[in-house]
Amino acid sequence: MVRAALGSDAATIAGLYHQLTGNPDVCVSATRIADVNARGDTRLFVVEQAGHICGTLLVSLCHDVMFGSQPFGVVENVVIAAPYQGQGLGTQLMAAAEAFCHAADCSKLMLMSSVRRPEAHAFFKRCGFAGDAKRAFVKYRPQFQTA
């Protein structure tokens, strides 16, 4: 079952993010989950199996001017707990993200994935994403130029 995350899911989501990134600075709060989901343009989803949260995905709408008022969607932080991978749960999360974007009349849905995750790339291709259509670039906060 896929549903919007609740504040009470914070610790489990933090654990999933630790699995994804290995970053000890991950900090997921109940308040932030509520704030994010209260916005109409962002949704943090979780997928459950037998009452246990097994994965999560964040999808945000980006306001654009290219196609009138049509936004585009960005998927971030897709992670399924290791013991549950390969059971279709990621596909369920991606379908929820697509439905969210379809309802918002998005022109496209995009995501980035670490170059070190070929198994994730294969999954995203199976979900219909084209890995060779565009090239992604990223700059993290420590590299930001300040004026």
TrEMBL record:
<dbReference type="InterPro" id="IPR000182">
    <property type="entry name" value="GNAT_dom"/>
</dbReference>
<protein>
    <submittedName>
        <fullName>GNAT superfamily N-acetyltransferase</fullName>
    </submittedName>
</protein>
<keyword id="KW-0808">Transferase</keyword>
<dbReference type="Pfam" id="PF00583">
    <property type="entry name" value="Acetyltransf_1"/>
</dbReference>
<keyword id="KW-0012">Acyltransferase</keyword>
<dbReference type="InterPro" id="IPR016181">
    <property type="entry name" value="Acyl_CoA_acyltransferase"/>
</dbReference>
<dbReference type="GO" id="GO:0016747">
    <property type="term" value="F:acyltransferase activity, transferring groups other than amino-acyl groups"/>
</dbReference>
<feature type="domain" description="N-acetyltransferase">
    <location>
        <begin position="1"/>
        <end position="147"/>
    </location>
</feature>
<dbReference type="InterPro" id="IPR050832">
    <property type="entry name" value="Bact_Acetyltransf"/>
</dbReference>
